[in-house]
């Protein structure tokens, strides 16, 4: 008998790996762009532009919150070091080897919740806003979405699982360095 939960978990991991280092243009769909940083869908027509047709940064996002401030965070040196290592080490050859290694799906077998629990002591070094364990961030994200969209079960689940790929940092999954697992995705060329 086929265990569909295991197949789903393997598909989630493969999907995450397929997104490693794809250019943001990969996420363009018609006149909508999926912003990978915050998983929000933004219409190109909604981007404010001034008279010279250059992008103007708004004071706040659609929810009235300010945007990330990388300069005044107490975590600045941690974030800078993570991205420095990312830009030095995230090469085409590294990504190719990593995809080949993880496509074998031989690192671990567990439930989705067991994978979430692996992130109990993981703090994302690329995030200037959070110094809490990733599991707490995932639960808070799911709960915030549930509060705002109570009838969208699929969206609650998406909020919970959106950072699940960070389990690749855990020893059970090969203990990849944080620069290989977290942060913004970049495009690579041969």
Automatic annotation (TrEMBL):
One Pfam family of this chain: MIOX
Cofactor: binding details: Binds 2 iron ions per subunit.
Residues given in the record as Fe cation binding sites: 137, 162-163
Keyword match Magnesium: no
Any one cellular-component term (Gene Ontology): cytoplasm
EC number(s) on file: 1.13.99.1
Phosphoserine modified-residue sites: 72
Keyword presence, Iron: yes
Molecular function terms from GO: inositol oxygenase activity; iron ion binding
Pathway recorded for this protein: Polyol metabolism; myo-inositol degradation into D-glucuronate; D-glucuronate from myo-inositol: step 1/1
Reaction equation(s) it catalyzes: myo-inositol + O2 = D-glucuronate + H2O + H(+)
Cofactor(s) annotated in UniProt: Fe cation
Main location: cytoplasm
Location of the protein in the cell: Cytoplasm
The family this protein is said to belong to: Belongs to the myo-inositol oxygenase family.
Protein name (Swiss-Prot/TrEMBL): Inositol oxygenase
Organism field: Quercus suber
Lineage: Eukaryota, Viridiplantae, Streptophyta, Embryophyta, Tracheophyta
Gene (UniProt): MIOX1_8
